[in-house]
């Protein structure tokens, strides 16, 4: 029997689903993580014979109720539903950070890269009546972001691999910051990398990077909208019901 550990970056998974299915659409957020993982593992039955999921670790951070009360409430219901339904075995929490930052004003260029806004008529920047070369407009904006999910994924994955409690790994993330723990896992056992989004798998996690003792049994998979919509929790899950609009 091959014991499989599944390590999920919850925010990476969420934003992948939003990209596939649409932010305002229903029918994908109430995701059954275990059902999805089992389905993906079954696709690899010939590659990983005798494999079964031993544990699922879900890493996330709680949304700030001060800035998004409804989102915080919906997330709380979902996290409790995951545990009540046995969809995950452990939830590891990072931090949700809100702060004000100052950045140069920019527009979106090709491939989403920033193009800095330079002064031009009718708005010019001058000093003593002369144009200021290279002047930029600075904007002060609020930012809200989670911190720690990638570190928690990496920590759980490495601890389980190095202590020998799993024989294979499934990683649900497309975060290139996980290059080091994935590389170390590749060297020791078979790894499946699941890209939640619609773009290319990060180069550091891609097929060109996969080496090690399990090379012949490594695999890669990119999720689609049907993967999200086709693996939903029961409603209710325990005593928790799907939030409106989900």
Short key terms for the protein model shown above:
27% strand; 28% helix; six-stranded parallel beta sheet; 6 helices; alpha/beta; 2 domains; two-stranded antiparallel ribbon; 246 residues; Rossmann fold; globular
Give a description of the structure.
The chain has 246 residues and is α/β, with parallel strands linked by helices. It has two domains: 2-94 and 148-229, Rossmann fold, CATH 3.40.50; 100-142, no CATH class. It contains six helices and twelve strands. The strands form four sheets. It has a six-stranded parallel beta sheet, with helices on both faces. Strand 2, helix 3 (69-84) and strand 3 form a beta-alpha-beta unit. Helix 4 runs parallel beside helix 5 (179-188). The chain is globular, with a radius of gyration of 21 Å. The two termini are 37 Å apart.
